[in-house]
Amino acid sequence: MALVHEFEKTGNWLFVRRSWLPLFFVAAGFGVIYFYKKSSIAFDFTPEMIFLLISLLGELIRIITVGHAPRNTSGRNTSEGQVADVINTSGIYSIIRHPLYVGNLLMWLGPVLFIRSGWFTMLFLLSYWIYYERIMFAEEQFLRKKFGKAYDKWSASVPAVIPKSFKYVKPVLPFSVKTVLHREYNSFFNVFLIFLVLDVFRNFTMTGGFLVTPVWLWMFCGVFIFWLVVRIIWKQTYLLKVDGR
Predict the structure, then answer these.
(1) H or E element, residue 65
(2) What predicted TM-score, i.e. pTM, was given to this entire model?
């Protein structure tokens, strides 16, 4: 099989599983915490809040992207594979082609930094690049086949993940808070859930008991209430429905 077809096939396989495959890194992180020098992972408020902010910056990038995206673009489609009705070329897509994957990187980087292991962080960055490079390749192959020269023209002037210029084009659609709430409430909740789980496991390795650091517990409780309210509204009402989103 030619590499171009192998990369596309592998990328499509990873694409439909991209929502849960990174959890293997969380599992590996538990192992690093368990066998690593315990004093290096003791609770330290300032760096841990910085790690959280890095993850929230990734979520913010996702929010900016999703908030302006039309329906069937910038989506979470997984089981059905690639879906795109139009090419996103305005807003954040006028600066980079794959803002969601940049956001995902930062969201996962926060918990990885929480582990305080330089070699594990480097391994994560290398693995993440290889992992998402295949996904981006498959996604772009799909878009090139569907939109042809229009996609080639846009992609020729917009870098994949690192901005070369900031010639920002105003988004075609206005920002939709409703769209963000129903599409990102799970991701926002998962950030705090992962940090809470890491904190509990960290405390267990150090004390042998299932303890939660108060600051992580209170933040998680607040986010859980927010998550529950949004989920009820989304599942039981039409308040978060937006035409064309």
Answers:
(1) helix 45-68
(2) 0.89
